Amino acid sequence: MNASVGQKSFVGGTMLLAVLGMVGGLLIILGIDQLDVGGDVAKYSIGTTVFLAGPLALAGLWASKRRPSLGAACQVGGAAIFGVCFSWTIVGPILALLVAVFGVRRARRLSKEQALKARPEMARHV
After folding, report:
1. Structure pTM?
2. 3-state DSSP call for residue 39?
3. Among 33, 72, 85, 118, fewest CB within 10 Å belongs to which?
4. Rounded CA gap, 15 and 111, in Å?
5. What CA–CA distance (Å, rounded) separates 26 from 5?
6. Cα–Cα distance between 110 and 108 in angstroms, integer?
7. CA dihedral over 29, 30, 35, 41, signed as positive or negative
8. Residue ranges of the alpha helices (H) in the chain?
9. 51-85: per-residue pLDDT in tens?
């Protein structure tokens, strides 16, 4: 598998997570979804949480080039929030799991690349 194809699909999956989270959060906040969660406070807190999960994952994607571990933590956090809030669907948790796994794999790869750039003599031992 070509790395650029995998990278594009990972970025696309994270973007899809962000869009779905923001749309789902807005639907919950606006009350269009007919979700009965036990009151306005619960509805607004769940909607806001879901709305912020996507941008958190995107921020992790952006931050992972400079700080891979911070980026992976943000991606996993956003994906976990999304997966838990949409646990009643099948696609939500699967998409969240894929984004989390690929975020951690990408962070490990970027960390290794940064370490090899810092210490080129380590390249022959890998």
Report:
1. 0.69
2. coil
3. 118
4. 23
5. 32
6. 6
7. positive
8. 3-30, 40-63, 68-85, 91-118
9. 788 788 888 878 888 899 998 999 899 888 888 87
Our measurement of the distance from residue 31's CA atom to the centroid of its chain's CA atoms, rounded to an integer in Å, reads 25
**Is the backbone of residue 29 left (phi > 0), alpha (psi -120 to 50) or beta?**
alpha
Q: 30-34, 73-77, 114-118: which range is least confident on average?
A: 30-34
Say if residues 103 and 9 touch (Cβ distance below 8 Å).
Answer: no
**Rounded to an integer, what distance in angstroms lies between the CA atom of residue 10 and that of residue 71?**
14
Structure tokens at 126: 């890998």
- Whole-angstrom Cα Rg for the chain: 17
Q: What's the token pair of residue 64?
A: 């992972």
Please give the single-letter amino acid code of residue 64: S
Structure tokens at 125: 């031992």
Count: domains in the chain: 1
Tracing tokens 């099948």 back to the chain, one arrives at 90
Q: With bands split at pLDDT 50, 70 and 90, how would you rate the model's confidence at 123?
A: low
